[in-house]
Specification:
With 398 residues, the chain is of the alpha+beta class. The chain is 52% helix and 19% strand. It is built from eleven helices and twelve strands. The strands form three sheets. The chain has a five-stranded antiparallel beta sheet with strand order 2-1-5-4-3. Strands 7-9-10-12-11 form a five-stranded mixed beta sheet. Helix 5 runs antiparallel to helix 6, helix 6 runs parallel beside helix 10 and helix 7 packs across helix 9.
């Protein structure tokens, strides 16, 4: 009996311990399951974070704008390749002012702190480059209020240049049109006021009107031609063409006008080669250059046309002994409507000839340039590619 009294409590205790052990095992299994779920969730979050980082880096790699991420002290924390290309390497750790040497950008950041709706934007001149700067403030965690400063820089230099060129072109066109239109108006008014009754005087005025109309027609046609060739709408057919045909076909029509000023157009030895060229367009280039040389060469002067060939291309040169081109004008003479110094003024031209020539030669894959010393004449040169057969022959000879 006494043994039974001892055994029963022990059995009860053992049962309680067993139940407790079973519950503990159940809890352990539940905890293990939750740990597994937590680990899967953590792995998922880690994968998502890694994907987000990869996506962020990929976006920063392909975006054209330079991107700077900074802390509140304007210290750069992260940049993309475009920023390093624009501002240089080793930017991380530097302050914005040290990286750019520009106080305007810091002012834009200050403006971004106060902005509520619109993102501040400004055009900044940084070492000759026109940059569109945008800045805004972000926060890493909404509850922590740890702001990050973000700035994007876009190089707008070419866009600004094109905008300026467009405005200059419109102003130049207006100027070029104003002179002949005014002249025609005055001549017509004079005729209407009685000059038409005087045959000799009215005939001269009609001749003058015809000249101004021709000037307008030439200007409009050359503007149309230049527009078409710039936009790629002017077909240029590059075919094997004898160099001699280009030169002779360009010079012969100009001989009579040169003779009127007792000028001599001298064609020096021309290589017997074929170039890859559009005959009509390439002749237009050479005619324009030789005609300019005729206009700016004194009476009795000389104009020399020569050509040399190497293994890949031919260089054609036109030299005159006119007044030359000033060093200030020389870099800009291929710009449309550019007004050179009085000694090299356009005379009866439109100011588009050299701009057209430049585009034609570029379309041929060549180069065009000018060399001059003021008072010592000028030399215009351009290149045309040799056809492949000519290149092969030249290579064999070498």
């Amino acid at each position: 009996m006494e043994n039974l009294l001892i055994i029963i409590p022990l059995l009860l205790i053992a049962g309680s311990l067993g139940a407790l052990l079973w519950k503990s095992r159940q809890h352990l299994r539940l905890l293990e399951k939750k740990l597994q779920q937590t680990e899967l969730l953590r792995q998922g979050i880690s994968n998502q974070l890694q994907e987000t980082i990869v996506l962020r880096d990929a976006l920063l790699q392909i975006v054209d704008d330079a991107v700077l991420v900074m802390n509140q002290k304007h210290q750069i924390l992260h940049v993309n390749p475009a920023a390093e290309k624009l501002l240089g390497s080793n930017l991380v750790g530097k302050t914005l002012i040290r990286a750019t040497q520009d106080h305007e950008m810091e002012a834009i950041l200050d403006e971004a702190r106060e902005a509520t709706d619109e993102i501040p934007e400004q055009l900044v001149d940084l070492d000759g480059k026109m940059l569109r700067v945008r800045a805004f403030i972000s926060e890493t965690e909404p509850n922590e209020h740890t702001p990050l400063e973000l700035m994007t820089l876009r190089d707008m230099t070419e866009m600004v240049r094109l905008g300026r060129a467009r405005r200059e072109m419109v102003a130049n066109i207006s100027h070029e049109l104003r002179t002949p239109i005014t002249s025609i108006g005055l001549l017509v008014d004079t005729l209407l006021n009685g000059a038409i009754e005087k045959p000799r005087r009215s005939k001269k005025m009609l001749v003058d009107i015809r000249r101004e109309v021709d000037t307008l027609t030439q200007l409009v046609e050359e503007m149309r031609y230049l527009s078409r060739i710039e936009s790629g709408q002017m077909p240029i057919k590059l075919l094997p063409t004898p160099l001699e045909e280009i030169i002779q076909g360009s010079i012969e029509p100009l001989q009579p006008i040169a003779e009127r000023k007792n000028q001599h157009i001298i064609v020096e030895s021309v290589p017997h080669v074929c170039v890859l060229a559009d005959l009509t367009h390439s002749q237009r280039v050479l005619k324009n250059i030789v005609h300019n040389a005729h206009k700016f060469t004194r009476e009795g002067g000389e104009i020399r046309v020569s050509a040399t060939a190497n293994a890949e291309e031919v260089t054609i040169r036109v030299s005159d002994n006119g007044p030359g081109i000033s060093s200030e004008d020389l870099p800009r003479i291929f710009e449309r409507f550019y007004q050179a110094s009085p000694s090299r003024s356009r005379g009866d031209g439109t100011g588009l000839g050299l701009a057209i020539a430049r585009h034609i030669i570029i379309a041929h894959g060549g180069k065009i340039w000018a060399e001059s010393k003021e008072g010592q004449g000028a030399t215009f040169s351009f290149t045309l590619p040799l056809v492949e057969e000519e290149v092969s022959s030249s290579a064999e000879k070498v």
